[in-house]
Write a structure and sequence with these properties.
By secondary structure, this protein is mainly α. It has 2 domains: 199 residues, Arp2/3 complex 21 kDa subunit ARPC3; 90 residues, no CATH class. Helix 1 runs parallel beside helix 3.
Length: 312
């Protein structure tokens, strides 16, 4: 590990268990705020948590941590699948065979996520000034490139193949959805995870728990929910409170606001509150916009113009 990063060290079993539980909760949150149907875009927030945990560990303990992360993510997926099936069937108890089958199907992509965490950890550990990621724009951009975009691009073909083989879907679409969801989730969560990594969890928690930071976080949440449910184009309004926080509070609080806004936007899209833009009168939706929204709304469609009225 380079001198610019906090040194990795040997950790206790309790420490490994705690970070694996946090990673599992991040995975459960990802499933809850996203459309978790097979092959859809899932805003996956858990990978940065696992990558940062591996960064803080001695490499000899990586196998133990990976096993703990595997168990935690499988448990998170099983909890989500069990809750979904229980709600759909209106029963309170599922059969053992059904539970085991659901666990197997839901957990087939977990090894790919673990490989992505491992690759992200290796790429991040090679950044000399990683400790300055939150203070230096160049280092932050390099961290996002190596820790988010590159691992997602490398593992997207494998993740798409796993989804396609499991659910008989189109590999190209599955690969694109994997890359989109993993990239968005990692870009949203990695800066906060790195801030916690460089400042230590207790100091990071102290910054977020300051009265001013808590008030601004609540304001960010309120503005995001209000704009997402009331305004036709709310995205600029959603980001404004985060910019305000960045000038008034510490780095960790501002990145926590970024994480909250991303999760709220995913949830608003997931539950149909934040809808695609309306079709302009007398005109069609641009093809790029239509394709972008259909990643998150696979069932939506816009009335298109007649073939003879559009030039190709």
């Amino acid at each position: 590990m380079h001198s610019g990063s906090p040194p990795a060290s040997k950790r206790s079993v309790q420490w490994i268990a705690l970070w694996s539980v946090i990673c599992g909760l991040a995975g459960l949150l990802s499933l809850g705020v996203s459309d978790a149907r097979p092959g859809q875009v899932v805003i996956w927030l858990a990978n940065p948590v696992g990558a940062v945990a591996l960064l803080r560990l001695n490499r000899k303990q990586w196998p133990v941590m990976l096993v703990a992360l595997l168990a935690s993510l499988c448990t998170a997926k099983m909890v989500y699948v069990w809750a979904s099936e229980t709600q759909a069937s209106e029963t309170q108890l599922l059969s053992l065979s059904s539970s085991l089958y659901s666990l197997m199907v839901a957990s087939l992509d977990v090894p790919v996520h673990l490989i992505e965490m491992l690759l992200s950890t290796i790429m991040l550990s090679r950044i000399v000034a990683l400790a300055n990621a939150g203070e230096n724009v160049t280092v932050q951009a390099i961290a996002l490139l190596r820790g988010a975009l590159m691992p997602a691009a490398v593992l997207a073909p494998l993740g798409g193949w796993v989804w396609g083989a499991t659910f008989n879907g189109d590999w190209h679409l599955m690969m694109l959805n994997w890359f989109t969801g993993t990239t968005i989730g990692t870009v949203a969560a990695l800066p906060l995870a790195l801030a916690v990594y460089t400042k230590r969890p207790r100091l990071a928690l102290a910054q977020v728990s300051e009265p001013q930071a808590l008030f601004m976080l609540l304001c960010c949440l309120a503005v995001t929910l209000w704009s997402g449910t009331s305004l036709p184009r709310p995205f600029v309004v959603m980001v404004a409170p985060m910019v305000w926080m960045a000038t008034r509070t510490g780095l960790v609080a501002a990145l926590a606001a970024n994480f909250i806004i991303a999760a709220c936007m995913a949830a608003l899209i997931r539950y149909g509150v934040l809808l695609p833009p309306r079709r302009p009168a007398g005109g069609g939706i641009p093809r790029s916009t239509s394709q972008c929204w259909q990643l998150f709304y696979p069932d939506c469609s816009w009335p298109s113009r007649r073939r003879g009225s559009v030039r190709h």
